[in-house]
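A protein record in our archive is deliberately plain, so that people and models can read it alike. The tokens are whole numbers drawn from a learned vocabulary of local backbone shapes. For reference, a complete record is included directly beneath this paragraph.
>
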Amino acid sequence: MRISDLSRRTGVPVATIKFYLREGLLPPGRPTGRNQAQYDETHVRRLLLIRALTGIGQLDLSTVLELLSVIEDDRVPLPALYEATNRAIHPDPGGAKVVDDVSTARSEVDRFVDGLGWHVESDAPGRNRLAQVLVALGELGCGCGVDFFQPYALLAEQFADRELSMLPRHGGGVERAAAVARTVLLDVALSALRGMAQEHLVTRRFGDLAREGGAGGPRRPGQCPADGGPTADGD
């Protein structure tokens, strides 16, 4: 197919396809003449993958290019492929403002992860990210201990197990691009489901307050000012 046909099939503008070709995100087509080439289903799948990763997955193009390189390198084992994907989705936040607090929280996170029996690298960005979440929550006055996440962790493990059960039992013949796409997009799906579940429960629990014109009243211990209680200035 011509580049115009490729554009119609995928919904990606011709100018964007040409950009992807120049940047190495899309392999070149089969030359058929001066400044002309033919493209096939491989290019269709690649464009749909890029569109999903950058659109729904909200990954930048440099990150997508790195993931594509890992996908294409069959020497990279499956665990390393998943590690690279998770690091792309949740990069190490770095730049901790309150070093001592983050260090303490990181120790709590390490204890928590070890208690789950999870085999997670010590430099996995998820450890630091969770530690910084704990510190930030504490600074905002709505902190919770790391053990608050126990049921979340158990559900996350079940979900990850369900996802990986879709792969061949011994990991052979895995469609690497599909594995990466599934990891990125299911992460988005989980966030969407949590948001809808929260909206559902907020409506059930506090719907009457909304009809009465707002919550009001003093802020409960551990409630963030943004949760509807008064600010520190009493506004």
